[in-house]
Amino acid sequence: MQTIFREKRISSILGVLPEKVGLFDEEAGNYSFPIKQTMRLKKIMGFEKHRLSKPDTTVFDFASHGLRYMLQKGWIEKEEIGAILVVTLCPDYFVPHISTMLQGELGLESDVLCLDIAQGCCGFLIGLMEAYMLLEHRKDKKVILINGDVLSHKISKMDRNDFPLIGDAATITVITQDKEAGEIYYEMHMDGSRGEALKIPAGGFRMPSTAETAVMKEQGDGNIRSLDQMHMDGSGVFSFVQTEVPPLLAHMLQETKESVDSIDYFLFHQPNRFMLQKLAEKVNIPTEKLPMNLVETYGNPSGASIPLTAALNLREKLLSNRYRCCFSAFGSGLAWGGMILDFGRLDNCEIIESGL
């Protein structure tokens, strides 16, 4: 899919983090590998620490906490909200949906559109696409986009492939109509034939969770997990990113008549530092234009990674200036896509901690 959006802008970003910090050094003993071997990953992959939510914390909790903060601070008024979009792989329930729960919790009008979207790594780009389309029909309102996951609840603490990189978080992005905003180029690709590369086998209707699916087993690669828990084929995903993303970026730059030099910042999904370093080398992106520090600071928060990376690294700059930026995300689905836009002069940009 390729398209262009007009007269839309991101006006505010809020990141919401749990207080608990998991340290890679302390978790290294959980894995059935020699400690010395495990510690080599710390430098290569950029593993340092990550944020972990409480066992009973949900995406709704993060979103409700963040929205109340925004309303109390005057970032947005209830009457301005035209839609709530929640993009997550971690629903509180099958029914009702998180977006409608938030609408009821906040006492919003019944004409506020509520929509939950099941997406992971590309969730911010998918959510922005939906927000831009909704604003074509709700020009006088603002769209609230919530990206959040608590995937630490679905990953084995004895799985060295997956647990060290994951981080729980949510971001809340306000998208508004702006007649002075420039064009936004958007491109998205998907390939379900490779979906097995990132999967939670049990828990849906195809394979309901049972006592048998909860049994922890050694998987033949030294990692221990159950069918109820997520697994990523690291080498498969790495190959996918290095193969598919560089042509995508080259095509986006060609279509927009941009170049690596003319883009101020490349804000990418953050799987790990090693993968981003190799991607930057392949596309010849200067490292100062591509922040790579999210996993070592907070962990990989799935679809929330792009806005959280922006808030972590560029907060002050984004409040005062506007930049030509390239967003790109890649992962579960498998899916990969990108966006080139003017980004900045935000009304608000902040990261807060919660007791969740």
Uncertain stretches: none
Molecular shape:
globular
> Order of SSEs, N→C?
EEEHHEHEHEHEEEEEEEHEHHHEEE
- Residue-averaged pLDDT: 95
**CA-CA gap between termini:** 38 Å
Characterize the largest beta sheet: strand count, sense, and whether it forms a barrel: 6 strands, mixed
Strand order of the largest sheet: 6-5-7-8-2-17
DSSP strand count: 17
Beta percentage is: 25-35%
Helix/strand class = alpha/beta
- The percent range for helix content is 25-40%
| Radius of gyration from the alpha-carbon trace, in angstroms | 20 Å
Number of helical stretches of at least 4 residues: 9
Which descriptors would you attach to this protein?
single chain; 356 residues; alpha/beta; six-stranded mixed sheet; five-stranded mixed sheet; 17 strands; globular
Commentary on this structure:
Helix content is 30%, strand content 27%. It contains 9 helices and 17 strands. The chain has helices spanning 24-27, 35-46, 59-73, 98-106, 123-135, 234-255, 273-283, 294-297, 305-320; strands at residues 2-5, 8-18, 21-23, 49-51, 81-87, 113-117, 142-149, 169-177, 184-190, 198-199, 217-218, 224-225, 231-232, 265-268, 322-331, 335-344, 348-354. A 6-stranded mixed sheet has the order 6-5-7-8-2-17, sandwiched between helices. The chain has a 5-stranded mixed sheet with strand order 1-9-16-15-14, sandwiched between helices. The mean pLDDT is 95.
Summarize the structure.
30% of the residues lie in helices and 27% in strands. It is of the alpha/beta class.
